Amino acid sequence: MGSIFLSALFGISLGTPLDFISLILGINSFKFFLAYKGSFMVNDELLMEGLKKCKSLGALAMVHAENGDAVFEGQKRMIELGITGPEGHALSRPPVLEGEATARAIRLASFVNTPLYVVHVMSINAMEEIARARKSGQRVVGEPVVSGLLLNDSVLWDPDFHFAARYVMSPPIRAAGHGTALQAALAAGVLQLVGTDHCTFNSTQKALGIGDFRKIPNGVNGMEERMHLVWDTMVASGQISVTDYVRITSTECARIFNIYPRKGAILVGSDADIIILNPNSSFKISSKSHHYRTDTNVYEGWTGKGKVETTIAGGRVVWENDELKVIPGAGKYIEMPPFSYLFDGIDKADAKYLSSLRAPVKRSTT
Known about the structure:
Elements: E1 4-6, H1 16-25, E2 29-33, H2 44-57, E3 60-64, H3 68-80, H4 87-92, H5 95-112, E4 116-121, H6 124-135, E5 140-144, H7 146-150, H8 161-165, H9 178-188, H10 203-206, H11 226-235, H12 242-256, E6 274-284, E7 303-313, E8 316-320, E9 323-324, H13 346-356
Parallel strand pairs: 1-2, 2-3, 3-4, 4-5
Antiparallel strand pairs: 6-7, 7-8, 8-9
């Protein structure tokens, strides 16, 4: 998405440097981590300052919503109980902690009166907080990811460490039931688009956590599989229409990040980025045939209907007949303007709030 991650680790402050970065790089979103205590995590004070700065820049604030302090406590608890394998990862950061952080971020964004984007929504708890906020009229975007829609946490209890570790991501893959609830929310428009949270590690890297789940690198694949799996799960099953499929995989993302109709549309003047998907063609996912430089795939052996047969980027065919035809250096950086449609009416809401205060009250000092 072209977001900037806000963290002391990257040396980014909340003063002038953000203005500079936004103006120079064409960045219109900033991501805040409420998890990862001791590294990426920001506290409420820093989050509020960031929300205010995003509002002034017309940038979209994004949050990884887990309570980092509570997760840290949960991790200590699991280690004390002798639970050191991948299952400890999920047990240390249950859905309630995702729900709490989502609710807190939503309320602080409401307090500042700025839009909020909740990334990788993985639980019913978080989804319900988003639904409640949107029903009240708040500008909140909820983004589930493919792994959260399709997988369940039974894999984390597999006796083979290497198999179980490949599924470690944050927030964790949840128990059966959460995924189907997220699918229903996506179909109903409670959640707006599907991401990947693509972050891959090979089996050697994942093995760093043997004996201590806290050291397992967090992340799974999803970029190459997203279009196929969303079609098979949501369209072929009858949960959403073809039009909805285009919206949740392309158009809505372009609108949110303010690059529509250059992206997310097939119109005169658009960038001619097009996929041709054959709904009657079958796909099979395998680490032996995927295009990642990793030796595992969390969707290994998955088959379904709806295969991307041709991809066109900028009017040029870059994928056809299962062959990648990308030319190095052909990519272009897309600057994303500030103040997307999510900011429409924000100034009027601020003015209404100020006029409602009936303050300050003039009082006699004698």
